[in-house]
Amino acid sequence: MKGNILIKKDNTDFAEADLETLTKALCSWFVRRDSKFYSVNRLGTKLSRDDVVYIALSRFRDEFGEMELSDALLREVFDKAISKRHAEPGMTIPVWNGREIASRDRVVRHRCHNRLCVNPRHLEIGSQADNKRDDWEHWAYGVDWDYL
Q1: Nearest Cα residue to 58 out of 92, 96, 80, 29
Q2: 3-state secondary structure the chain
Q3: Which residue in 14, 32, 72, 146 has the most C-beta neighbors within 10 A?
């Protein structure tokens, strides 16, 4: 029933489910630290709020093209994810402590394939597919001498 609930903002109606879908997507793409934002795919690059809005709008159009992206809906998404203070899980851009993030979609890849190694320079964040490709390359080509 959530998809049938309409929210009226600025003389425009939009579905609550659309607001939740877009907000959760936005909050999964970025983290924040010290008033700056970072893409979870490029944690080394600082982004401004305007950068986040620009990148998110592009991704919304690519990934949710079938959804009507009204100005009122987008304004509410950005307010909820970036500006408003609330405790709804997944509905605000999370604070990042400066360390790499591993999650269900992102794993820690151990590049030298030595289980006894504890060198942090040999650890990288990537997808499970990246990790599997590392295994295949290791099996096919053997040791990567750069990591020894």
Answers
A1: 29
A2: CHHHCEEEECCEEEEHHHHHHHHHHHHHHEEEECCEEEECCEEEEEECHHHHHHHHHHHHHHHCCCCCCCHHHHHHHHHHHHHCCCCCCCCCCCECCCCCCCCCCCEEEECCCCCCCCCHHHEEEECHHHHHHHHHHHHHHCCCHHHC
A3: 14
> Higher confidence at residue 139 or residue 99?
139
| Percent of the chain surpassing pLDDT 70 | 81
Q: Is the pLDDT of residue 135 over 50?
A: yes
Is the distance from CB of 92 to CB of 80 less than 8 angstroms?
yes
Q: pTM score > 0.90 for this model?
A: no
* Cα gap 48→115, rounded to integer Å: 39
Measure the CA–CA gap between 1 and 20, rounded to whole angstroms: 13
